[in-house]
Write a structure and sequence with these properties.
The chain is α+β, with helices and mostly antiparallel strands. Helix content is about 25%, strand content about 30%. Pfam families: DUF4880, FecR.
Length: about 325
Amino acid sequence: MTRETAQQIEDKAADWVARMHSATWGPDEEAELKLWLAADPRRDGALLQAQAALSMLTSADTGIFGENPPAEPRRRLSRRSFMGFGGAAVAASLGVAAVVFRGTSYVTDVGEIRRIPLADGSTAAINTDSAIAINLQRSKRLVKVDKGEAWFQVAKDVERPFEVEAGRIRVRAVGTAFSVRKLETGAGILVTEGTVDAWADGAEGQMIRISAGDGAFIGNNAAVERVPPEASGVDRALAWRSGKIDLVGQPLSEAVSEFNRYNKRKLVIVDPKLLNEQFDGVFRTDDPAGFAEMVKNSLSVPIDTSYADQILIGKKSS
């Protein structure tokens, strides 16, 4: 049996919070939670971290992580006190939208990351500069990714498959966790739990199955490009759910592109000789200046932070 990663445990803890907020929470769900906690000692800590977030709650109007993520809480709360809080407060404390909709749309600005509970018990995390529409029907659950990227922790319901549409690309699951990123030429899919089926509309005969830890890009022309399996590769690609960018050997050009997804103040490489310099490390999505400073120190190159809307890296060739 594959050992859960810390990120998977954190995601599941957040999913428990969303379930507590739903109208279906009861003694059976509480018993299931106790079994989940007992199976791995790390899970108790993850739930306690979720509890501690309540101590920094200042209003019910939360659910959006902007360019300044919340500070670490000053104290922890017991699980008993956590279970006693109202569902709306619990949901808000973890950056979960306090209102659950059966059918609605969500839009995030540049730098925004939202986690929302769905009425069926599923959870969606929406990345920066994205737009999704949710329609939970009696026979199936539909999500349309109009722009950007979202990750879904799907509540199992064999009678109602969970289907995501991103342009021509379709992804179907029953109970699993996966992300879909819509691009101009198709969509990228990463699976963190279980399996999903994916295909291009009109090319159902070329449907592929993607398992946990793997991914694929499906083009609008139905061409499939498998993402080579790599240890922790999927977790790194989805580090944005925790407000982070995880780089392992990425060239500076790709790192800059990733930072620019999350910030209105853009990084600009002015020296083309720096484009292929490679970097490792975990960085905050909202700290392009800190990343630029690291590049400056690592490569001994100048940076210019005098502009309000951009940070220049390197020196133009004469």
